[in-house]
Amino acid sequence: MISIAVDGPSGAGKSTLSRRLAAELGYIYVDTGAMYRTIGLFALRKGADLDSETELAALLPEICLEMRYVDGVQHMFLNGEDVSGLIRTQEVSMAASRISAHPAVRAFLLETQRGLARENNVLMDGRDIGTVVLPNAQIKIFLTASAQERARRRYEELAARGEKDSFEQVLADVRQRDYNDTHRAAAPLCAAQDAVTIDTTGYDFEQSFQKMLEVIRRAQKQEG
Ligand code: DC
Fold it and tell me: Rounded to an integer, what distance in angstroms lies between the CA atom of residue 11 and that of residue 151?
């Protein structure tokens, strides 16, 4: 089985690019952020203290997480309910960032993620895929862009959906999430030593896509 790990900060374009690349390569796309978001949503609904590992750990056994593929698109199901749309709000983004700091939450998802890579050729995106989840992935990419550029993209995406956060608010959230994701003790966001870093600042979707494809094709050739 072949695994491609794509890590990077929020808003670097990981999900859209990864989805398209996986389709191009005929691999399964695994969006691990969606898993953390789903747990974040559940914790919010339960009114749990997002910073309390004990409270969250007690909730985990109540969660049945399923990923189903509908026309090649990953849908997240939380105890049988399709929450794919609900997990995309700013509130859930921030909750996901906070609950993902807890080792108990990470351990809960680790086996599911590794299991998918054992059974399928995967392109998996997240924060710690190349470093922790799939350290033996054949190809690792660290995708990044400046905070300003990532906030601009996120702002446009939210505006298109009718969410009315100001740009300043979105930028502050991006910075806060960057801080949370890189400073937590458990599996902090960082590039694996053997990852190829791609900075998409100033690139449009197509340029970023071609750049990633080039890195993957080159690595595939070297693998023989
Ligand atoms: O990629 P995303 O924005 O959907 O991820 C939501 C949050 O989940 C993000 O702030 C950090 C966390 N996350 C993580 O800790 N590890 C991963 N492999 C994926 C996401």
Answer: 7
Whole-model pTM: value is 0.91
Q: Is 80 left (phi over 0), alpha (psi -120 to 50) or beta?
A: left
pLDDT at 72 over 90: no
Out of 14, 17, 32, 132, mutate this one to test ligand 1's pocket (max ligand atoms within 8 Å of CB): namely 32
Ligand 1: distance of its center to the CA of 128 in Å?
9
Residue type, 222: Q
Q: Does the C-beta of 40 come closer than 6 Å to ligand 1?
A: no
Residue in the block written with tokens 């807890």: 102
Report how far ligand 1's centroid is from the alpha carbon of 10 (Å): 8
pLDDT in tens, 115-137: 999 999 999 999 999 999 999 99
Dump pLDDT digits (tens) for 138-148.
Answer: 999 999 999 99
Nearest Cα residue to atom 15 of ligand 1: 100
